[in-house]
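User: Assemble these into one structure.

Assistant: Restating your components, then the assembled model:
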Amino acid sequence: QVQLQESGPGLVKPSQTLSLTCTVSSGSINSADFYWSWIRQHPGKGLEWVGHVFHSGSTYYNPSLNSRVTISIDTSKNQVSLRLNSVTAADTAVYYCARFYGGNYPPSFDYWGQGVLVTVSS
Amino acid sequence: DIQMTQSPSSLSASVGDRVTITCRASQSISNYLNWYQQKPGKAPNLLIYAASRLQRGVPSRFSGSGSGTDFTLTISSLQPEDFASYYCQQSYSTPSTFGPGTKVDIK
């Protein structure tokens, strides 16, 4: 059973950098079958895909965040990281990491972490 | 970006009711459509992938259909544990996008 666990500060000051880590257990982060994704959910709102990373380090970002976001992977630690620069109150959200997997079918987010609430406030 | 819409945005139903939720894409996405259930304070849970395929462990009262731009999630007989929000998501192109959600609550 694949498990994903997000960790990081729950409070970030405006203009600073949000940094989160997702630790993946019971699964191969190094597999070519998966992308490792970050998705966020503003309070009481819907879901927004932030971006994802492949085991090789290739990344894809949501254009709405492209200039501020960096996603990286450390296969030796089974971890995926998210950095979001120059945050504002609009970045307050629950941040989820999730596995994006397709195999023989169109891909879906089949495993999710529990999520971590990040509040941007001074 | 591909825009996803859902209807209704909310509905009230009783245990045992048949419930249908519709999702529409702004352009054809073939069968690159997934459905998720989310309960308050919890992460979304994959129900249906590839428009109609039931994720392992999901009860058979859930089903999905559709192709192209129009899709449907059906719960054949609503159970108490099904009161939740439901989201569709397209994985046809990047950025992947979600519908705004449908909240199913108790009548």
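The interface with chain A takes residues 1, 30-34, 36, 42-46, 49-51, 53, 55, 87, 89, 91-92, 94-101 of chain B (CB under 8 Å).
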